[in-house]
Amino acid sequence: MRIVCKDVTAETLYDVLHDTSYRKKWDTNMIDTYDIGRLTANADIGYYSWKCPTPLKNRDFVTMRSWLPLGNDYLIINYSVKHPQHPPKKDYVRAVSLLTGYLIQSNGANSSTLYYLTQVDPRGSLPKWVVNRASQFVAPKAMRKIYKASQKYPEWKRKHNPNLKPWMFPEQNSLPCINVAELTVQRADSLENIDESGLSEEKTHHSDDEET
Fold it and tell me: Of 149, 150, 180, 202, which sits with the fewest C-beta atoms within 10 Å of its C-beta?
């Protein structure tokens, strides 16, 4: 997917996608997110969980994320890993990011374009209507949310640790170091498969945010 952000700089978009404190303000489908530890100056391990429409089970991820400024452009990619201290949780289905990435291209002093590509295995035998809803409505709406959140971010950041950007300044990163030997790539076939294929759309309760 692609969205043109006519009044948002590439750097602001990059900050919004990194700033977990701010994400809690705009990502209404998120249940929790936090950084687990760092691998290098531009790679870390993090956790993210989000709400699925009832009665589907909520999903979560543990991913390795890396990022790279490319002149005036920026790249962020992630994929799922297994961390021994963060196994699958009882009330969640552990989903798998095979490869997810954001490319932010600068269009000048105050404009940018955000590209989003993802290949995700949500695990479970999901009904076709769930897959259709995610691809046709949920993902495009998430892009618009990022755009709107980016418009408000500079004002919010001025009031909340304006100089703290560990994704830009590695010396600010206080996360514990993780040994890469502790990690393995998360394979989808090693996770429990939940059969949710019989759930009907009529019995599903969506959040107000999804319906707007």
Answer: 202
